[in-house]
Amino acid sequence: MTSANSSTNPSTGAPSRTPSSGLSSDPTGAAKSPPTIECRELVRIFSSTGVEVQALQGLDLTVERGELTAVVGASGSGKSTLLTILSGLDVPTAGRASVAGHDLLAMGRRERTGFRRHTVGFIWQQTSRNLLPYLTAAENIAMALIVARSPKRARGARIGELLDLLNVGDLGDRLPAELSGGQQQRVAVAVALANGPEVLLADEPTGELDEANSEMVLDSFRAVNEQLGTTVLIVTHDSGVSEHVRRTVQIRDGRTSTEVLRSTRTDHAGLEHEVAEEFAVLDRVGRLQLPQDYISQLDMRDRVRLGLTDDHVTVAPVRERSSPAAQDALEASGTDADGGPDAPRTAASTSEGDR
Ligand SMILES: Nc1ncnc2c1ncn2[C@@H]1O[C@H](COP(=O)(O)OP(=O)(O)OP(=O)(O)O)[C@@H](O)[C@H]1O
Ligand SMILES: [Mg+2]
Fold first, then answer.
1. Helices and strands (H, E) in the chain, number of each type
2. Model pTM score
3. Residue 117 carries which DSSP code?
4. Relative to the CA of 73, which ligand 1 atom is closest?
5. Tens digits of per-residue pLDDT, 265-316?
């Protein structure tokens, strides 16, 4: 399985970490309809126990209509916090967030209820949390339709359609306890889709499943995305999910850091190859996070030296300064000890790099 941090450029075998121009899934920046999910400088601070925890620290994320995206990150990186905000269950402390045209910071109570019933569908990690245990699979879907006041006549057909789409067509009469974990999660996806949401959000939907069941559930998300055009966002700590989606966004310490885009390319012999490219995320004010392994490999600390060439920027570690005697000699020759008169700017002298 490919991890977001170890993705390589298959054509060269080298790590491919080209900075992108932002968090849009389309690096070409072609004009398109407004994104379905848009977060800007999103902050969520919890201070319930007297200690402040900054779960989200200025997170930027853009998901276009119809995308199937995974957000991957370590435990505590802020994934669930992000998802509960996007589903309308929680409100951010600061920043901007919109989903399918709804401003999540400005929504009133009534709009929020409608938003959660009709605009977003949600799947939790715990299979038991998604379904009512005393109702069958079909009745669980029916309940979601009843709550949203869907017309009674159309309910039966809708339930059959959803069970078939999720490949559990013959399990409608079973209680959750009579289904495997993977089957329960597929029924949960059907319940979440009952009212035709524009967006499907899933928090660790495969966290309790073995590999085979995880694959089936992830295939279901792909089927839903392809057949219904639903925008799907899955958060997980399992970087293997990136093999099932076109785009994986890595979240680190409450901010998006890198993203992997998968695409199919045809080589000169006409053979198709799946290509995974990893990009660093560059936010609006020019911040990016260097991968931890790059930082340790080059022993970078505190500040780095930035350099601008015709078509790229270099980031170099700052080495120990030379001895005073050597420095005197360099000054006498008119050369700056840090690399000459045209030496690249250091982060310390670059306001953008320090912000
Ligand atoms: N209600 C809360 N009150 C206080 N702190 C919270 C609350 N919810 C989350 N946090 C803290 O915010 C940070 C991010 O938590 P979050 O649950 O979003 O992480 P996560 O990436 O989903 O982790 P995991 O993979 O373990 O589910 C953590 O430090 C967590 O302890
Ligand atoms: Mg979580």
1. 10, 13
2. 0.78
3. I
4. 21
5. 888 888 888 888 888 888 777 888 888 888 889 888 888 989 999 999 999 9
